[in-house]
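Run log, item B.
One chain of 137 residues. Sequence copied directly from the ordering sheet:
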Amino acid sequence: MATTTYLSNPTVTVNSVDITDQCTAATLTKVVEALENTAFGATARTYTGGLQNNELTLTLYNSFAASETYATLNGLVGTGTTVTIKPTGSAVSATNPLFTLTLTYLETLPVINATLGELDTIDITFTGGTYSVSTTP
C-alpha cells in the first residue's frame, strides 16, 4: 500500500528558462551503464557500474513566441546544457527534491509536428549529463 502520493505537476527548466507552462509530460531516468566483470570460473555473469547515461524525455507544446519552446531549444541542439526538474512547484525539500542534469545533450529538435485540429506538441530527449539531487533550497 502506498504511504505517500503526490499530484504530478513538476517544474521544469532548460538552460535556466522555466518551460513548465509548455510541458505536459516528463520522464527522468537515472542510468548507470553495466560493465561486465565476470571472470573465468564464474557460473553467472556479474557487473559493475560504469558511466552515467541519464535521459530526460519531455513532451512540450510547440510555441514560436519569444522565450517559449522553439526559442529556448533551437540554439541548444548539438550542445550540452543544464536541465532541472522537481516533482512539484513547492520549495526544494526532502519531499520535493530538485533533480539536475548538467551538460546533458540535446541531439534533435522536431520543429513542427502538426495534425489538423490538434495542438502542436513535440517530444524531446536530453541524454547523458551528470545526474545530481538536492534536497536543500
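Observations after the first pass:
- Residues 69-73 form the longest helix (5 residues).
- The chain has one helix and ten strands.
Flagged for discussion on Thursday.
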